Task: structure prediction
Amino acid sequence: MIKITDIVKDYTAGDSVVHALKGISLTFRENEFVSILGPSGCGKTTLLNVLGGLDRYTSGEIEINGKSTKLFRDKDWDAYRNHYIGFIFQSYNLIPHLSVLENVEIALTIAGLDRKTKREKAKEALNRVGLGEQLNKKPNQLSGGQMQRVAIARAIVNNPKIILADEPTGALDSKTSKQIMELLKEIAGDHLIIMVTHNAELAKKYSTRIIKLLDGEVKSDSNPFIIEEKQDKAQNQEVADEEQKIEENNVKIDEKTQKKPKKDKKISLQ
Result:
């Protein structure tokens, strides 16, 4: 789970300061499909970059699974981006002289895996996005939708906790956009996806949560995380653990009972 509290991001432009984010506080669930909507210049992409560790926040706090990032050094941010985050960009950011398979494999380079393992994982990710038959093609041999699928495969190949998508359907036609959104919705079943988009219609249809930004501030949140959810989850786990203990004790009692020699039943003569 990722939590941001009073996040401020300021940029210096000449003699003036641009307040891109003005004290944003949000908590994201482990598995949900979040769309961030708002006009150009409202801070959507800045927020995404801050969440992904591509841009440092001016003040506030980001917590990942309860651990604060305030004292993160460069190597900590590198590890966070490499192992915890998957990025999907509007412009795909594929390397033109590499094959589809190699473009996905490159995301595994920092993982220190051997060549065979990298290839297997890359093929698995490409099969998941429906490109198992396009492994040896170059990006310029693919359609826009196929290139975005390669970008998605590259984003998920490391099995990150969070997928950050910046206008993933912005360069696609409506039919292909729906296909990509269906794919992202499926991936959101076991990932947190945070997507920046201008397309309110697609966001409403496929997202489980819509956050609207304006002038660097949150104006609405369709499904905010409530602290009671965390408490309920903890209580449910405690109940489940207690039930498990009772069940294990009952099994032990049954085993002891079965080991005892059976006594002859008394026959009633009355």
About this structure: Residues 261-270 have pLDDT under 50 and may be disordered.
